[in-house]
Predict the structure.
Amino acid sequence: MMTLAIDIGSNTMKCLLGRPSGALVDALYERTLDSRICAPDGGLVKNASLLISEAIKMFISEARNFCPSFKIVAVATSALRDSPEGGNVVKDVRASTSVNIRILSGYEEARLSYFGAMRGVGGSRESAFFDLGGGSLELVFGDGLNVLESFSMPVGSVRMTSKYFSGGFVTPGASLEMSDEISKVLGATVPCRHAYNRLIGVGGGVVAARFLKRKMALPGPESEISLPEMEAMFGEVASRTPLERCQELGIPNGRADIVPAAFLTIIGLMKFLNSAILLHTFYNIRYAVILGGI
Protein backbone atom coordinates (compact mmCIF):
# COMPACT_ATOMS: atom_id res chain seq x y z
CA MET A 1 0.00 0.00 0.00
CA MET A 2 1.33 3.42 -0.97
CA THR A 3 1.40 6.03 1.80
CA LEU A 4 1.83 9.79 1.67
CA ALA A 5 3.44 10.70 4.98
CA ILE A 6 3.22 14.40 5.90
CA ASP A 7 5.24 15.95 8.73
CA ILE A 8 4.19 19.39 10.01
CA GLY A 9 7.12 20.93 11.86
CA SER A 10 7.86 24.32 13.38
CA ASN A 11 10.01 25.55 10.51
CA THR A 12 9.23 23.19 7.63
CA MET A 13 6.51 20.99 6.17
CA LYS A 14 7.61 17.79 4.51
CA CYS A 15 6.10 14.84 2.71
CA LEU A 16 7.19 11.46 1.44
CA LEU A 17 5.24 9.17 -0.89
CA GLY A 18 6.42 5.58 -0.75
CA ARG A 19 5.89 2.00 0.33
CA PRO A 20 7.86 -0.48 2.44
CA SER A 21 10.60 -2.42 0.68
CA GLY A 22 11.92 -4.83 3.25
CA ALA A 23 13.50 -2.76 6.03
CA LEU A 24 13.76 0.29 3.76
CA VAL A 25 11.38 2.50 1.79
CA ASP A 26 10.73 2.60 -1.93
CA ALA A 27 10.26 6.38 -2.29
CA LEU A 28 8.42 7.83 -5.29
CA TYR A 29 8.16 11.50 -4.33
CA GLU A 30 9.23 13.80 -1.52
CA ARG A 31 9.09 17.51 -0.94
CA THR A 32 10.18 19.99 1.74
CA LEU A 33 8.68 23.45 2.16
CA ASP A 34 10.32 26.13 4.27
CA SER A 35 7.19 27.38 6.02
CA ARG A 36 7.61 28.61 9.59
CA ILE A 37 4.44 28.30 11.66
CA CYS A 38 6.20 28.91 14.98
CA ALA A 39 5.99 32.58 16.01
CA PRO A 40 8.88 34.40 17.78
CA ASP A 41 6.95 34.30 21.06
CA GLY A 42 6.76 30.51 20.90
CA GLY A 43 3.14 30.40 19.74
CA LEU A 44 1.80 30.00 16.21
CA VAL A 45 1.71 32.54 13.41
CA LYS A 46 -1.80 33.86 12.70
CA ASN A 47 -2.08 32.14 9.32
CA ALA A 48 -0.79 28.75 10.51
CA SER A 49 -3.99 26.92 9.45
CA LEU A 50 -3.80 28.40 5.94
CA LEU A 51 -0.09 27.61 5.55
CA ILE A 52 -0.61 24.01 6.60
CA SER A 53 -3.72 23.54 4.47
CA GLU A 54 -2.08 24.92 1.34
CA ALA A 55 0.99 22.74 1.87
CA ILE A 56 -1.12 19.60 2.30
CA LYS A 57 -3.16 20.36 -0.83
CA MET A 58 0.03 20.86 -2.83
CA PHE A 59 1.60 17.65 -1.50
CA ILE A 60 -1.50 15.63 -2.41
CA SER A 61 -1.78 17.17 -5.88
CA GLU A 62 1.87 16.57 -6.72
CA ALA A 63 1.84 13.04 -5.25
CA ARG A 64 -1.00 12.09 -7.59
CA ASN A 65 1.35 12.66 -10.51
CA PHE A 66 3.26 9.61 -9.25
CA CYS A 67 0.43 7.44 -7.93
CA PRO A 68 -3.33 7.98 -8.27
CA SER A 69 -4.25 6.35 -4.96
CA PHE A 70 -2.57 6.36 -1.57
CA LYS A 71 -3.22 6.51 2.15
CA ILE A 72 -2.50 9.86 3.82
CA VAL A 73 -0.94 10.03 7.28
CA ALA A 74 -0.24 13.53 8.63
CA VAL A 75 1.57 14.19 11.90
CA ALA A 76 2.60 17.36 13.70
CA THR A 77 5.29 17.95 16.29
CA SER A 78 6.13 20.60 18.89
CA ALA A 79 4.68 23.71 17.19
CA LEU A 80 1.11 22.38 17.38
CA ARG A 81 1.78 20.28 20.47
CA ASP A 82 2.93 23.22 22.57
CA SER A 83 0.38 25.78 21.39
CA PRO A 84 -3.06 26.12 23.00
CA GLU A 85 -4.30 26.81 19.46
CA GLY A 86 -2.99 23.49 18.12
CA GLY A 87 -6.35 21.72 18.40
CA ASN A 88 -8.17 24.53 16.59
CA VAL A 89 -5.60 24.47 13.79
CA VAL A 90 -6.13 20.72 13.38
CA LYS A 91 -9.90 21.32 13.07
CA ASP A 92 -9.40 24.14 10.54
CA VAL A 93 -7.08 22.02 8.40
CA ARG A 94 -9.46 19.05 8.50
CA ALA A 95 -12.31 21.30 7.32
CA SER A 96 -10.17 22.66 4.49
CA THR A 97 -8.44 19.47 3.31
CA SER A 98 -10.32 16.49 4.83
CA VAL A 99 -6.95 15.40 6.25
CA ASN A 100 -6.72 14.73 9.97
CA ILE A 101 -3.44 15.73 11.58
CA ARG A 102 -2.26 13.67 14.52
CA ILE A 103 -0.35 15.78 17.04
CA LEU A 104 2.45 13.58 18.35
CA SER A 105 3.42 13.55 21.99
CA GLY A 106 7.09 14.11 22.78
CA TYR A 107 7.50 10.37 23.33
CA GLU A 108 5.77 9.46 20.06
CA GLU A 109 7.88 11.96 18.14
CA ALA A 110 11.08 10.60 19.66
CA ARG A 111 10.09 6.97 19.07
CA LEU A 112 9.11 7.50 15.43
CA SER A 113 12.23 9.54 14.69
CA TYR A 114 14.41 6.87 16.27
CA PHE A 115 12.61 4.02 14.48
CA GLY A 116 13.09 5.67 11.10
CA ALA A 117 16.71 6.63 11.70
CA MET A 118 17.78 3.19 12.88
CA ARG A 119 16.25 1.64 9.76
CA GLY A 120 18.54 3.94 7.81
CA VAL A 121 21.81 3.34 9.66
CA GLY A 122 21.30 -0.27 10.76
CA GLY A 123 23.22 -1.89 13.57
CA SER A 124 22.14 -3.61 16.75
CA ARG A 125 24.29 -1.93 19.39
CA GLU A 126 23.20 0.70 21.87
CA SER A 127 22.95 4.14 20.30
CA ALA A 128 22.08 7.71 21.18
CA PHE A 129 19.80 9.47 18.70
CA PHE A 130 18.41 12.99 18.46
CA ASP A 131 15.97 14.90 16.30
CA LEU A 132 16.49 18.66 16.47
CA GLY A 133 13.45 20.59 15.27
CA GLY A 134 12.39 24.20 15.41
CA GLY A 135 10.55 23.87 18.71
CA SER A 136 12.12 20.95 20.53
CA LEU A 137 14.97 18.50 20.85
CA GLU A 138 14.04 14.82 21.05
CA LEU A 139 16.72 12.54 22.50
CA VAL A 140 16.51 8.75 22.51
CA PHE A 141 18.71 6.03 23.93
CA GLY A 142 18.05 2.70 22.27
CA ASP A 143 19.32 -0.77 21.50
CA GLY A 144 18.77 -1.71 17.88
CA LEU A 145 15.15 -0.83 17.11
CA ASN A 146 14.15 -0.86 20.78
CA VAL A 147 13.73 2.44 22.63
CA LEU A 148 15.24 2.30 26.12
CA GLU A 149 14.63 5.92 27.20
CA SER A 150 13.42 9.06 25.49
CA PHE A 151 13.36 12.74 26.41
CA SER A 152 11.82 15.86 24.88
CA MET A 153 13.27 19.29 25.64
CA PRO A 154 12.01 22.75 24.56
CA VAL A 155 15.32 23.86 23.01
CA GLY A 156 14.51 23.80 19.29
CA SER A 157 16.37 25.98 16.82
CA VAL A 158 13.58 28.52 16.22
CA ARG A 159 12.88 28.79 19.94
CA MET A 160 16.55 29.30 20.85
CA THR A 161 17.10 31.77 18.01
CA SER A 162 14.19 33.91 19.22
CA LYS A 163 15.60 33.86 22.74
CA TYR A 164 19.30 34.45 22.08
CA PHE A 165 20.02 35.40 18.45
CA SER A 166 17.38 37.94 17.46
CA GLY A 167 17.15 38.11 13.68
CA GLY A 168 19.79 35.40 13.44
CA PHE A 169 22.64 37.67 14.57
CA VAL A 170 25.15 36.04 16.93
CA THR A 171 27.20 37.65 19.71
CA PRO A 172 29.80 35.95 21.92
CA GLY A 173 27.85 36.79 25.08
CA ALA A 174 24.59 35.36 23.76
CA SER A 175 26.43 32.24 22.58
CA LEU A 176 27.79 31.63 26.07
CA GLU A 177 24.35 32.16 27.60
CA MET A 178 22.71 29.75 25.18
CA SER A 179 25.42 27.13 25.68
CA ASP A 180 24.90 27.41 29.42
CA GLU A 181 21.14 26.89 29.08
CA ILE A 182 21.59 23.87 26.81
CA SER A 183 23.98 22.33 29.34
CA LYS A 184 21.60 22.98 32.24
CA VAL A 185 18.55 21.63 30.41
CA LEU A 186 20.38 18.45 29.42
CA GLY A 187 21.77 18.00 32.91
CA ALA A 188 18.36 18.46 34.53
CA THR A 189 16.54 16.20 32.07
CA VAL A 190 18.84 13.36 31.05
CA PRO A 191 20.42 10.86 33.46
CA CYS A 192 23.54 10.41 31.32
CA ARG A 193 24.97 7.05 32.33
CA HIS A 194 27.89 6.66 29.95
CA ALA A 195 29.49 8.07 26.83
CA TYR A 196 27.95 7.45 23.42
CA ASN A 197 30.74 7.68 20.90
CA ARG A 198 28.24 7.28 18.04
CA LEU A 199 25.51 9.92 18.08
CA ILE A 200 22.92 9.68 15.29
CA GLY A 201 21.03 12.82 14.35
CA VAL A 202 18.32 14.11 12.03
CA GLY A 203 16.68 17.47 11.47
CA GLY A 204 17.32 20.57 9.39
CA GLY A 205 20.30 21.65 11.48
CA VAL A 206 22.03 18.32 10.92
CA VAL A 207 21.34 18.48 7.20
CA ALA A 208 22.83 21.99 7.13
CA ALA A 209 25.95 20.72 8.92
CA ARG A 210 26.30 17.86 6.46
CA PHE A 211 26.23 20.12 3.42
CA LEU A 212 28.37 22.80 5.02
CA LYS A 213 31.03 20.17 5.65
CA ARG A 214 31.06 19.53 1.90
CA LYS A 215 31.12 23.29 1.17
CA MET A 216 34.12 23.74 3.48
CA ALA A 217 35.86 20.72 1.89
CA LEU A 218 36.42 19.06 5.26
CA PRO A 219 37.88 15.53 5.04
CA GLY A 220 35.92 12.30 5.45
CA PRO A 221 32.34 11.28 4.62
CA GLU A 222 29.95 14.22 4.77
CA SER A 223 27.50 12.10 6.79
CA GLU A 224 30.04 11.84 9.63
CA ILE A 225 30.88 15.04 11.51
CA SER A 226 33.33 15.35 14.39
CA LEU A 227 33.00 17.72 17.33
CA PRO A 228 35.92 19.92 16.13
CA GLU A 229 34.25 20.11 12.71
CA MET A 230 30.94 21.16 14.30
CA GLU A 231 32.74 23.86 16.27
CA ALA A 232 34.51 25.08 13.13
CA MET A 233 31.21 25.25 11.26
CA PHE A 234 29.58 27.16 14.10
CA GLY A 235 32.42 29.69 13.85
CA GLU A 236 31.76 30.09 10.14
CA VAL A 237 28.04 30.76 10.51
CA ALA A 238 28.32 32.83 13.70
CA SER A 239 30.72 35.28 12.04
CA ARG A 240 28.27 36.01 9.20
CA THR A 241 24.90 37.69 8.89
CA PRO A 242 21.93 35.57 7.75
CA LEU A 243 22.22 37.08 4.26
CA GLU A 244 25.94 36.23 4.10
CA ARG A 245 25.19 32.67 5.19
CA CYS A 246 22.92 32.36 2.17
CA GLN A 247 25.24 34.06 -0.31
CA GLU A 248 28.61 32.72 0.87
CA LEU A 249 27.78 29.34 2.43
CA GLY A 250 24.73 28.31 0.41
CA ILE A 251 22.46 27.91 3.44
CA PRO A 252 18.78 28.19 2.41
CA ASN A 253 17.11 31.46 3.30
CA GLY A 254 14.50 29.74 5.45
CA ARG A 255 17.23 28.31 7.69
CA ALA A 256 19.91 31.00 7.60
CA ASP A 257 18.76 32.69 10.80
CA ILE A 258 18.38 29.53 12.90
CA VAL A 259 21.49 27.58 11.84
CA PRO A 260 23.79 29.06 14.55
CA ALA A 261 21.38 28.01 17.31
CA ALA A 262 21.06 24.56 15.75
CA PHE A 263 24.83 24.08 15.57
CA LEU A 264 25.34 25.32 19.12
CA THR A 265 22.69 22.90 20.40
CA ILE A 266 24.35 20.00 18.59
CA ILE A 267 27.74 20.97 20.02
CA GLY A 268 26.26 21.07 23.52
CA LEU A 269 24.68 17.64 23.05
CA MET A 270 27.90 16.09 21.70
CA LYS A 271 29.84 17.42 24.69
CA PHE A 272 27.19 16.24 27.15
CA LEU A 273 27.23 12.70 25.73
CA ASN A 274 31.01 12.67 25.10
CA SER A 275 30.25 11.88 21.45
CA ALA A 276 33.20 12.14 19.09
CA ILE A 277 31.16 11.65 15.92
CA LEU A 278 27.76 12.78 14.70
CA LEU A 279 26.26 10.44 12.10
CA HIS A 280 23.51 11.81 9.86
CA THR A 281 20.80 9.80 8.14
CA PHE A 282 18.00 11.00 5.87
CA TYR A 283 15.63 8.40 7.37
CA ASN A 284 13.22 10.18 9.71
CA ILE A 285 9.62 10.35 10.96
CA ARG A 286 8.14 10.12 7.46
CA TYR A 287 10.07 6.93 6.75
CA ALA A 288 8.92 5.50 10.08
CA VAL A 289 5.29 6.26 9.21
CA ILE A 290 5.59 4.44 5.89
CA LEU A 291 7.31 1.49 7.55
CA GLY A 292 4.36 1.06 9.88
CA GLY A 293 5.65 2.84 12.96
CA ILE A 294 2.28 4.53 13.44
Remarks:
- The radius of gyration is 18 Å.
- The chain has a mean pLDDT of 91.
